[in-house]
Amino acid sequence: MPRRRQETRWIHRWARWIIGAIAIMGALGTAYLTVVKLSQGEAACPTGGCDVVLSSPYAMVFGIPLTIFGFLGYAGMATMALAPLAIDADRNKDLRKTLESWTWLGLFLGSVAMMVFSGYLMYLLAFVLKTPCIYCITSACFACGMFGLAIAGRYWEDSGQLIFTGLIVAVVTLTGTLAIYAPINSPRSADSNIPGQAGPPITTVSSEAQVQLAQYLTDVGAVMYGAWWCPHCHDQKQLFGQEAAKTITYVECADDGQNPQVERCQSTPGIQGFPTWQVNGEFYSGTQSLEALADISGYTGPREF
Questions:
Q1: How close are the terminal C-alpha atoms of the chain, in Å?
Q2: Tens-place pLDDT, residues 33-50
Q3: Exposed end of the chain (fewer CB within 10 Å): N or C?
């Protein structure tokens, strides 16, 4: 029994420091991913899944990279964990005690929200994007670790009230997450008569030059490989406009998209991400400007793109 009390005192003494360390590592990781996302670079990742996740529509919330919200969440957790420790307990005992009380509740509720949201991201990885992302998995582990430490790091006098409050935060977080991603999970179909998912509608209008370029690319056998959930694929189609986007040869690589050709995509070795263009036997990854596509394909028509 004395040994158990000693272990409990140890976790009470160090829980804030550990939560703070975890939160700082999470903040550094999300800051790095934010830079990668904004610069459209490639993340250091043992698999290609990290870049797939970063290029998916789930990586953006209200037009802002999700990693920025992750950074703010981790920064907030680090602040709540470490701020009371900066106060001299001998000189400001009451202030430190008050801050510790409020921040412990904040740490608990914050970790609940982060854990629920991370759980939803794990669902997306497993069943929607179907790709591993080491950063996402690590972040989920961080959230679970902070949740466990927030519970074990102090004595909670009213565990019933704590559980009730935590459930409310969990439900609100899950409801808000589903509402935010509802347009992505149920996008408007480009053709309601064709089964499968389709990305957001193309809203730009094609010029004559864009239509001619699209027709030329089709005539020379150029192919665009993409996925309905890929925002860069949508950007590429937006560059062509509504009419021209229907003219190019597009291969859907997501198995839940419209007219998917998954086997073709998997057997094409030049596809490293989406979109990927195959023009004259060469592969070009990422969103290409219409000028670039005209140059690499040998297009000689009008270029008023």
A1: 78
A2: 999 988 878 888 887 778
A3: N
